[in-house]
Amino acid sequence: MNRPSARTARALRRLAALGAALGVLALAGCTTSGGGDDGKPSVAPPAPTTRAATRWQPQPGVAWQWQLSGTVDTSVDVPVYDVDGFENDAALVAELHKAGRHVICYVNAGAWESFRPDAKDFPAALLGRGDGWDGERWLDIRARDRLRPLMAARFDMCRAKGFDAVEPDLLDGYTNTTGFPLTAADQLAYNRMIAALAHDRGLAVGLKNDLDQVPQLLGDFDFSVDEQCAQYGECKQLTPFITAHKPVFHVEYELKPAQFCPAVRKLGFSSMAKHLSLDAWRDPC
Length: 285
What we know:
Layout: H1 9-22, H2 50-54, E1 64-67, E2 80-84, H3 90-98, E3 102-108, E4 111-113, E5 127-130, E6 136-139, H4 144-160, E7 165-169, H5 184-200, E8 204-208, H6 214-217, E9 223-227, H7 239-243, E10 248-252, H8 257-267, E11 270-273, E12 283-284
């Protein structure tokens, strides 16, 4: 049975934190890396490869559908779909491709999920605190050498099913209470590893949230996926993607389209209102 996935943990955590702090007030707008890398930001993105030259690059303003729960409604007339990589098969991707759509593969890259078929492959020592969803725990992203093959296998699955891109969720663990002393440098190194794994497989890759590191990671990612930047007054942090001719796929859960669409249209975002469960319903800008 499909269920809301970890991609909305950020929304729930932030709403809970703000509720505790503000009650009913209106919202206002050096640890050692466990992998073989040194954890330092790279000076420049890697040189283009043949795969990079042929990789799908979505453009700013393209309409999209994001559905992670329930049976995917393939009748939504938009060029881009983002769906769960484990719960959907190659036949669905092929059907969407036949209709002229590009398809993004949602996978969790920052937390362990007990209900996934590869759950037993994750070492217990890498599992931290819960991330707000039943059966999910933050990963120790410092252990890149141990996580690299696990994430590579997930991206191999996306590629084998015919997906055009991946949306790796929870790429901002260092800003949360994970049970591990994660630093910004740890997150940069891990996120760059994730992007490289996708690119090595000819897949485009999106930066999920992690707004504070947009300047450092812009060259590594092909698009952004953001939740609630309008509600939290953060949308301008994502404009470097638009300047670089890369889209910002954006949703709001609490605001009505009239409250955020005029502003994000000016920014060039691909925005819509969605239910928190990310079912088929959408109200686009």
